[in-house]
Every structure is written in structure tokens, then in C-alpha cells.
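[retry 2/3] Alpha/beta hydrolase: previous attempt timed out, resubmitting with same input.
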Amino acid sequence: MNLTGNTFFLITIALVVIAVLLPLLLWSRLPGPALVRGAGRLLMVLFAQATAVLVVFVAVNNSNGLYDSWDDLLGTADHVDSALDLGPNGTGGKQISALPRVVQKWEKVKDPSLGSGLRRTELKGAVSGVVGEVYVWLPPQYDDPAYRDKKFPVVEVLSGFPGSSKNWFRTLNFQDRVQPLIESGRVAPFIVVSPRTMLGDADTGYANIPGKVNADSWLTVDVRKMVTDNFRVSPAPENWAIAGYSAGAHGAAKLAFAHPDRYSAAVSLSGYNDPAAESRSLTARDPKLRVENNVLHILKSAKTPPRVSLLATGEGADGYGPGLALQRAAKPPTKVDVRATTGGHVTPVWSRQLPYAFEWLTRQMRPRV
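[retry 2/3] Alpha/beta hydrolase: success.
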């Protein structure tokens, strides 16, 4: 039975009802000596508490998309086939353009909770050794005959930790927020790509860690190449952006600054610079990795300022302060815009930012479609 969805949620509600009815019906009717009756009543109380906690967890999980499956929740999913040392460029010394063409089979997503226009595939990363699902949303113009010779800009989107690759479409309501703006011409017809980012029971830090996981190469090499090989898009960085919220915001800013040859713009919604802001981050556990994967350090230590535009949003120390630190450190052609938000570190706040964020991306990238 799926962890998410209405079926399991309804079952948990039914269990709560049973847990309430049991003591009402049986409290004074339990047979046996006092010790046995006391034990029975204690079990009914514990059952009521457990079912109450369960129904709250399922409701929160469904609303926020924290865990997509039982394997994700229990940490039993294995999405890493190998984690070789791929070197500083994350390709094992290979040229991305020389890698074999990746042709995928796609299925149209029929889940109404995810909106329309989505396709899904299971990708085995030839470089990273990561295996996971990738969701792709195509704008209405993509299948329009008038655009059949056009190449489209891409935004790769990252969820927080824990988080699901469905979140941008289910909990952030991307289509409802942004599709009307695309149809009206206020926002460019971006292709939106949402790959799996939860690759184990810990946050990867969006880094390559030999022997553990090559999350950087999964997102910036394998997923990008798969998209360019299967859709009408260009691999040129001026046609690619990356966006995320919470831990995904940290990843978006980090990967954009680290790979200006792959992305020209990034959006960080309530992001942070220091990996230690996420206690379960693999990059926060090692002092060297923590420094190397600090977004501010990456920006300051770049040999030349990266040609990347970043939008950082948040409230106080949650996104806004880290954004200001990046803005102060940025030198042309790097550009950092910072926007204050209110409402806290929650999904509705990030969802409300999407129209502004995608209008901002359209202004920065100026894609010609």
C-alpha cells in the first residue's frame, strides 16, 4: 500500500475512530483480575495515542511531500549503483559532449494531484551511478506546430530534505501558479525538470562524495544530458537554470556557482550557505567537505566570478541573511538579487514565490523561443 495518497490516509482515520470507540465500549467491561484489566486499558490508551500520531504524520507527509514511499521513510531504498571518484569536473575526465546518447522511455503521468503535462522516466546515470525517477513538465507551446523547430529553456527544480520529486507539482502547485503566466507570455515557456534528490537516508549535500554518492554529477551531468538528448533543448548554460527550496535551495545556489558552464541562473527559496544548517547533510559531517560545499566559499574562491544570476528569498536568517552575504561577496558578472518574505519556512510561502521567481528567470535569461 502506498504511503502517500488517500487510501492509506483514510485507513489511518478509521483506526483513530476505532481507537476512540474501544475505550468507550470496553473500558468498564474488560474481564479478569485488576492487573489484566489495567493492562488492557493501558493498551487502549497507547493504541489511541499511536493512531493519533500516525494520522497527523500522514496528513503532514501528504501535505508537504516529505517521503514519497515506504522505502524513503525507512531508508531502505538504494538509488546508488556506484560512487566512483569522478574528479573535479564530475565527469571522470570525460567530455560531456562525447558521452553516448541517452534515449529514455516516457510515461504520461495520470495522477490528478500532480496536474497536467507531466511525463516520467526512470534514469540510470551513466556517469554518476545514481538510479532514480525524473519528472518533466512540458509547456503548452512544446507540442504546438508553430514551435516545432524551436528549442526551449529549462529549469531544473530541487526539493528539500526529506522531499519528493513530485513536490513542485503536488505541494507547490507549479502548474496553477506559473502555467497561466506562460500562456499569457509573461513567463518564458520553460521546460521544468524534477529529478529525484533523496538518494538515501541522509541529505547528500548535492555533492560528489566518492564511495557514498555522486549527487552533483547525477543532477548536473546525467539529468542534463538526458534532457538534451530527449527534448528540444540546448545544453548551453544560458538556456539552463536551477531552482530549489530549503535544502534544495542550498543545492541550487551551490551547483549554479560551481558549474557556470552548465547553468546561468538559479533561484534559492529559503536557502542556506553552510551545509551544517541541515543536520543530516553528508557534507556537514566532514570539516573539509563542509568548507568546500559552503555556497559563500564557492563564490569567494572562484578563480573568476561565475556568470550566474541568483535570486535568494527568505525571512531573516532563513534565506534572506545568507542571500545578503552572497550579494555582498558577488562581483560582476555574478549578480545576486535578494527578496524578503514573511510566513516562515513552509510550503505555502515557497508556492507564492513561484510567479515572481519565474518572471525573474525570464528577465535574467531572456530566452528566445
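[retry 2/3] Alpha/beta hydrolase: The chain has a mean pLDDT of 92.
[retry 2/3] clearing retry counter.
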